Amino acid sequence: MTTVDPSAPPLPEQAEVDDTIKLITDNADRIFSWKYDRERPQLVTLYNKAMASQWDSMNDLDWATDVDPEFLVATTQKDNPTVAVARAAKDVPGSPFKNWGEKEFTQLSIESLKASLSQFMHGEQGAMMVAAKIVETVPWIDAKYYAATQTMDEARHTEVFAKYLDLKLGDAYPMSPYLDEQIQALIEDSRWDIAYLGMQIIIESLALAAFGQMLRATEEPLLRKLLRYVLADEARHVAFGILSLGEFYENLSSAELFERQEFMAENTIRNRARSGIPEVWDRMGVPLKTAMPALQEGATKVDQSLFTTFQHGFFGKLVPNTRKLGLLDANDGHLRKMWGEAGLMEYEFADSTADDYDTYDAVAADRAAAAAAASTD
Ligand SMILES: [Fe+2]
Ligand SMILES: [Fe+2]
């Protein structure tokens, strides 16, 4: 018979465990490689760069920085479409926001920022698991090495977003069902390159756009530095996806490439409208169902360019990167046609993340500036 040590901490109730974990079955094979030759010089360069530009979440960020949430949202959330729509919805007849003043709109800005940072945090954990999956499933040793550095990067990203939320803003929001579904599908997929395509090309492009937009808006110094350092890593992750998949897709059949083109269309055009965090409205005391009619009317009054800034950032990364993989033109331009109809081909030459990851390297830039300052002292 086992005896229970009375001083041991109690085990959590099953419901509590179910609330905080989720089981996902990965259907991909693990690959052990005995070929250690460094055959991919661009991946070797990227891996060496990743090692040199690792940063330290404890010492490189000043966690003692005092953060005032109201000051924070005054800049970061200035052009936030959610807040703009709620303001426009205030005067709609029967609006649940009719008695709202600046206090409530500021609170909505804070909740909306917390919801965004929470999605960054959950997405980063997803990225950590997908990068670990790539370590296990990719057949090339240079790619395994690189993905191992990315796994560490994503651990640090998850940690810093969680810490920022916890120390500076209070509680976090749950993962949006859309992001949850997307990442679960990548972890489950039996084809190793789909984890790359979904994470390194689609979600990383999304992250570059979202972090970049927040960085341009905010004046809060701790969040600024955190985002600059995270962005420096993310630019390398996108480059990793392009270098690896570009090679792999040269040798796929038309039928296999067609599947990848459909995957890209499915995860961009067809899913575009599905985002938003309904819990924000619950916390504001106006459930989304009640708020929806006034919000819809408010949205028609708001300058639509507020909604498109982010889309420009995202597709401006995604479309050029997809072109580099050869996925636009395979099968008589199947994806080019679908994206063309959705108005996305204007972005074909918008950006070049694969080659310009060095220009994002804020870590190296800060270290060079510190060394230059020390040498003139
Ligand atoms: Fe990340
Ligand atoms: Fe990443």
Q: What labels would you give this structure?
A:
Ribonucleotide Reductase, subunit A, mainly alpha, globular, single chain, 377 residues, binds fe (ii) ion
What is the strand and helix layout of this fold?
Layout: H1 14-20, H2 41-52, H3 69-76, H4 81-89, H5 102-137, H6 141-169, H7 177-188, H8 192-217, H9 221-249, H10 254-266, H11 279-283, H12 288-301, H13 305-324, H14 330-341, H15 362-376
The site of one fe (ii) ion (FE2) has 5 residues, from α9.
Overall description:
This protein is mainly alpha-helical and 377 residues long. The protein has helices at 14-20, 41-52, 69-76, 81-89, 102-137, 141-169, 177-188, 192-217, 221-249, 254-266, 279-283, 288-301, 305-324, 330-341, 362-376. Helix 5 (102-137) runs antiparallel to helix 6 (141-169). The radius of gyration is 22 Å and the shape is globular. The model has no long low-confidence stretch (mean pLDDT 89). The protein binds fe (ii) ion (2 copies).
